[in-house]
Structures are given as structure tokens and as C-alpha cells.
Amino acid sequence: MCGIVGYVGKNQAAPILLEGLEKLEYRGYDSAGIAVRNGEDDTVIVKAMGRLKKLANKTDQGKAVKGTCGIGHTRWATHGEPSELNAHPHCSDDMNVVGVHNGIIENFQELRQKLAHHDYHFYSDTDTEVAIKLIDYYYKKYAGTPVDAINHALVRIRGSYALAVMFKEYPGEIYVARKDNPMILGKSDAGVFLGSDVPAILKYTRRVYYIGNMELGRLTSEGITFYNLDGDEIKKEETEIEWDAESADKCGYAHFMMKEIHEQPKAITETMKQYFDGSKVDFSTLEKNGAIEEAGGEKINAVLKGLERIYIVACGSAYHAGVVGKNVIEGMTDVPVEVDLASEFRYCDPKLMKNSIVVVISQSGETADSLAAMRLAHDRGIPTLAIVNVFGSTIAREADYVMYTCAGPEIAVATTKAYSAQLITLYLLAIKIGELTGTLDDDRIKELMTALEQIPNSIEKILDDKERIQWFAAKYASAQDVFFIGRGIDYAIGLEGSLKMKEISYIHSEAYAAGELKHGTISLIEKDTLVIGIMTQPDLFEKTRSNMVEVKSRGAYLFGLTTYGNYSVEDTVDFAVYVPRTLECFAASLAIIPLQLLGYYLAVAKGEDVDKPRNLAKSVTVE
Ligand code: F6R
Fold first, then answer.
1. In degrees rounded to 5, what are phi and psi of residue 480?
2. CATH code for the domain in which residue 474 is found
3. Torsions phi, psi of 287, nearest 5?
4. Which of 2, 91, 406, 585 is catalytic?
5. Is 2 a known active-site residue?
6. Which one, 1, 386, 481, 494, has least CB within 10 Å?
């Protein structure tokens, strides 16, 4: 989705803006632009279609645009086709107000008509131009301050936004506002920064502020002043970001995705460290309503102890982690778990049981559907627990309880390390519920925790043998259709493996519960169709293997993924991949690694843009 950046301070703004936009490239975009002010002089706006390189070339890497105050934007088209005209920044006709926006203004047609009655003309198809001209309209109508004008406009705007705006009469100042779209503000001795996401500003500062929903900020080179919708000043705490600048760099890897695949052992170790006291799962550092609970986890423990049902809601890979989570929680406890896609949950009028909890899983913490699902749970009085990677994100701030996955910044659009950290968090949750509800005794907990601690090491071993997967990918890069089959946790692994493959290599792939094959899908199997069978679950091994035999007899080429020891698979499959042994409930954490590598190497073999696949955005902040 769109990315916004801004800077006001001692240095030239344009190079900083370009650098910030580059760090936000992973969010997905089709055009980009910057607006820079040089003191009292007019604002210079430069836009370009396509990759940021074009914008950089147009501005001589930013050197051709002078000024120490500016805003920038990468656009992912929603209203209006991708074009230079529709690219941001947008401005009022007299350049009185210039701004960038991330989000969707739902009533923009109505506002556009209103403005047209007041002689405003529109050069683009965007909702953003309408928002900027609405601010201009109120600025002139009431002759007040920029804060007054923005507040008037926000009262009229329905939808979501992260806005950054400059006013002609206020050089050296940027005004920002947000509702349901991410924005982070940072401060250093060199000035003040804004970005949609931490990586945009990480190189310059780790001292940040989070601006709340329906709040405004005034940025000058001296600092930031915050306001509420009444225009009253409000105070905000400065927070120190723990991520380091290197974590948002490729560090020698060809792609962020490969770097992040290799960071999985660390992401898991860090996540586990946070909620493991050496012998048991410890929730005393788990956040309640944005702060570490004083009672040391007693509140969340009481909720978990009385649970009669768990609802897991999420999108994409986070949903797939949820499907694994359902299997694991139900395997360790007596609590039934329902997993829903957030986009369905929010509109299906879910019948939520009283003693339940809604677990929302989200890497970004900003996914619009997941956020809406969580708000629905709040409205119905059901406690919410968010499993989130991005510190201070909207979902993290609005959830009753938060478990952070400590994966660090994830830049590649296709998630890997955040997914792995989500799995670990769900295992820890399952163990805790098992302990609290009495289905797991101390010995079993010890056994589970010992197995968990071995996972990072086992992943390292799988990564050491990645060339074998690379070889296979080179051979199968021309595949048209690929099917993943498995049962139980293996099916959940297939869902994620299939998504990894299709989203970056563009090879059509589907995951099926192996038992479903005969109910239609098997008709798609032809000679040499690649079928990937996942067989990590001892009780289901023979069942899935016989489904593999069925497709083989119809010509399929079989890729078998199983654990060391199941060598009988060699008689059935054409290509066998083994992962180290672990407890079967944790097999997803190992079996997903070869499938991530497969998706990656297929995309590389096909020459695709691994980190920024077409049409996809890292953070999906619109429905
Ligand atoms: C796929 C992928 C997406 C995300 C989904 C949810 O590799 O990354 O499917 O999992 O868009 O995003 P978050 O976790 O940020 O809510």
C-alpha cells in the first residue's frame, strides 16, 4: 500500500525523502513523488511513474530539488489508474496546500461535488486531491490555523488516512493526521522525520512518537506538537525503537526474502525468550492495554483459564499460521478453536461465545480486515489478544493483550520470519492454556519446551542444505500448476507453501486437504504435474502417502516432504526432502523452510522481482 515520508530540519530534504521512500518500496507502489519547500519560495513537486529510480533520476538523486522541508509518497493505486497525474503529492490550484495521503476517503465523490460548487476544479481522479482541496477550502473559509483547517476537513472525511500536508504561509512546517493508517514520527538532532513505517526513518533516528487515531501533529525542525480534534495540544511519550538500522538492510544477501529466511532461527529464539522463564511459559511481560500488566500476567492467565472457545482471525500467511495454531491448541487442550479469515469474520455476524477470546494475528499490525475483526470483537465485549510484529502498530495499540513476535523488520513482501515467529507464539499460547486448564502436566510441558528450544538449530540444518532445493527449483521453473497435499498440520503447511510459491514465482499452485483430492481436484492431474505431499504427522503419514500413489498413477511427479526416518517415502516419491525430527505438533516450523526456499528459488530462476512481487503490498491497509 502507499507509503509516506517527510522531513524538516537542517539538511536538504529531497535525498532524505528519496531514501525513506526506497525503504518503503516493499509496501508496493506504482508511482512516486516528492514536494519540497525552500523557505518562502514556492513548493517544487516532482512525480514519476514506475520505479523510484525514475524519480531519483528526474531529481538528480534529489540534488536538483533544494529545500529543507518536504514530503514524499509511493502510490499504490486505489482511486484512479496508476499515472503521473494521479501520483502524489497533490495540491490546491494556487499551491496553497500540498499533501500526500495513504488510505481511502470513502465519501470523496460527495466532497468533490461540494467543492465543485465552490469553484474547485480537479485535475486527477484521486480521493487525495479532494482531501487537499477540502483542507484548502476550510483554511480560506475560516481564515484559521492549519490545525483548524485540517480538523474541519477531518470532521467531513469518512474513511481512513495518514496525511502529511504543507501550507504556503507556514514554511518549514509539516502537518500530519491519521486514522486507521500507519504513521510514525521521529526526532533527531538533524530534524524531524515521518514515515508510514519504521524502516523509512530508522537510519536517522530511533526516537519515535506514535500519533493516535484522529490526532494531528505539527512538525518543525525543533520538534513535534500534537493536537486532538478540538485543536487542543496533547502530550505524547517518546519511545525508543529497538530495531537497528542493519535489520532493514540486505546485509550481502541478494534479496531481503533470503536474508529473512536465514533470520528465522534468531526470530524464533528472540520471540521465545520473551515468554519463557527457563521452565514454563511466562506471560508476565505480555502487554495489557499497551503496558506491561502490573499483576504480572494474572489477568491474561485468568482469561485463558476460563476459555470455552478461541477464535483466531487473520489474513494470508497469518491466517495459515492460525490454521496451524488451531491444530496445535486443540491437540494440547480441550478448548475448541475456530479459525477465520478476517475479511469473512467481520461481515458474517459471528456468534461469539461468552467465555472466549479473539486472537488476531498480524505481522504489520495494520491490516484493515484484521483490525476491523478485532474491533468487532471489542464491540461484542470479547477480550482480544493480538500477535503482532510491528511495535506500536494500530492492532497492537487497540488490542486488550499483545504478544509481540520479535522478528524485527520484515521487508520482503512474502512473509517468512514473521510467519515462523507467529507459529512459535501460538505454540507458547497453546502450552500456556494447556498448563492453566490442566491438560498438560509439568513433564509434558518440559518435553514441549525442550523441543521448542531445538527448533532454531534444526532450521539452521535445513538451511545448510538449501542447494538441493535450488537445484530442484531450476528444474521445475517452467511448471504451470502445482498441487500441495497434506492432512491436519500438514495441510496447514501446504497452504503456506502454496502461497509462498504463487505469490512470488507466479506459478499457479493450490493446497488441498489430501482427502479432498478425489472430490474433484484429481481431474487436474496430468503427466508430470508437480504434486508436493507433506507427511510429517505419523498418524496421517500412510493416508497421505496413499493419496500420493493415487496421483502418481495418473502421471504426477511427486515431491515428498517428510521427517528423517520416514525413508519408506523413497519408494513412492520422485524427489524426497527430509527435515529434522521434532515433536509432531511443531513440525510446521521445520517443514515450511524447504517450501519457502522452493518459492524463493523458483522466483529467482524465473527472474522475478522476489522482494516486490507484482500487485502485492506488504501492509494491506484497505479492504
Ligand atoms: C504472504 C503475506 C500476506 C500477509 C497478509 C497479512 O506472504 O505476507 O499474506 O500474511 O497480508 O498481513 P499481516 O500479517 O501484516 O496482517
1. -100, -45
2. 3.40.50.10490
3. -80, 140
4. 2
5. yes
6. 481
